Amino acid sequence: MKPIPKLLSKTKLLRGFRCLKAIYLTIHHPELEPPVDAATQALFDQGNEVGREARKYYPDGVLINNQPWDFYGALSTTQRLIENQTTILFEAAFAYQRCYARIDILKLNPETKRFHLIEVKSTTKVKPEHITDTALQAWIVSKSGIPLEKISILHLNSECRYPHLDNLFKEVDITDEVRATYLSIQPKLHEIFTTLQQPNIPNIDIGPYCLLPTVCPFKSHCWQNIPEISIFNLPQIKNKKWDLYQQGVIHLSDANAIDFDFSELQTRVLNYEKTGERFIDHDAIQKNLSTWQFPLVFLDFETVNPAIPRFEGCGPYHHVPFQFSVHVWQTPNEKTTHTAFLHETNDDPRETLIPALLKSCGTSGSIVAYFSQFESERIQALADYSQEHKQDLENLITRMVDPLPIIRDYVYDRAFAGSFSLKSVAPALLGESQSYEGMQIANGNDAQRGFEQLISPDISFKEKEQLKEAMLAYCNKDTEVMVELAKWLFRL
Ligand code: SF4
Predict the structure, then answer these.
(1) What own/partner pairs with CB < 8 Å and gap ≥ 24 does 254-262 have?
(2) Contact 134, 86 (CB under 8 A)
(3) Partner of 114 for a Cys bridge, out of 107, 147, 298, 314, CB 3.0 to 4.6 A?
(4) Chain segment 12-66, per-residue pLDDT in tens
(5) In this structure, are residues 26 and 15 in contact, taking their beta carbons and an 8 Å threshold?
(6) Nearest Cα residue to atom 3 of ligand 1
(7) Rounded Cα–Cα distance for residues 231 and 420 (Å)
(8) What spacing in Å lies between the alpha carbon of 186 and ligand 1's midpoint?
């Protein structure tokens, strides 16, 4: 057992509100927590960026810029500024007993001498977990002697459109919700600190709290007895997986033995997992493919969706395509041709992307996209943006066809492991050469981060060239794999 720190930050304490085992492992077994990966770091960076942006809306605010680990420095700076009656504080620090929190925005009402606590969130609405988070902060602040009169969440406003960012944030008063939770804070903290003093790891089984609101950092430790393929892999199972787990069903083979309301797709997955045979409904596939028209145009977009909008007409998290790959298969007897587009500067990609997209897609044949809803929505957004090309872009949407429902409804192979994503289906049906393993950019999140790096003024020429190559290779791979998948379907 490690000594319990004199002060525990709100972030760590909240782990205990989720699961007592999580806080215990955080303090006594930090070696079990994997290092923060690039995707999680990107989320932290985004949260910090939104926090910085929110401060701009309070020009008189004073930032307490002690580093996150400098608890005592931040506490003493806060105390001094409060004694000086500073009206708006950013990152004010408070501690009570062993609990420590920093408050995004704290506003003094000079008339009542009471404070308004504002928690900034990078979401576009208030989520249930925000209430516990803010209630814990309010508890620490109040107990340390600061009177609060109002508690709010300041979240991104989904109605806001660039370049008019004056309504980027929306303030929601959650004083009543916090009040309703407030009395539960002290008993929970008592439970947390009692648990931390125990010699053994609390005996807590896995549950929905491992996955929500985010995946717990200790999942790889606590879930080590769950096999790689289990009832958690069943498609569209959602929360019903916990009903199965409670009944002792973990292996897919166990699921066959119980009376449970599985969907048609889940039943098929269970049956073919059991036999190990591959399911193919040739007639249904043929019928579906007969609606596809040559030339087949295989399309894949990569998009960026910044929390703080930076392209005309866009709101928070709106997707803007910056890259596409198109393979065209003119006739069944011809080889495919390929075109690619990658925007490389920090201006609006749509101006150059739209004409390039229309040229690459031509005016005839089916446009094939895996989970085509995503591509259709992006094209509709491009059409809404460009009056000049609106009709031509909307014509592209009418040509869309999608291999995903064909695979999901009429093909199953054990190697899918319950997933119908292109990255699972392609290597299972076409062989390992169609796997994304080992690629520098291997998924959409990597591509987004790659784009931000690509347009950064700090990137060197050599780094930029290498990155471009990796990004083009990834997007190209997506359409190349779709071509091979289509050929495989036609061969059936
Ligand atoms: S993985 Fe689940 S059981 Fe393990 S610490 Fe996290 S929330 Fe608790």
Answers:
(1) 255/231, 262/234
(2) no
(3) 147
(4) 999 999 999 999 999 999 999 999 999 999 999 999 999 999 999 999 999 999 9
(5) yes
(6) 206
(7) 15
(8) 22
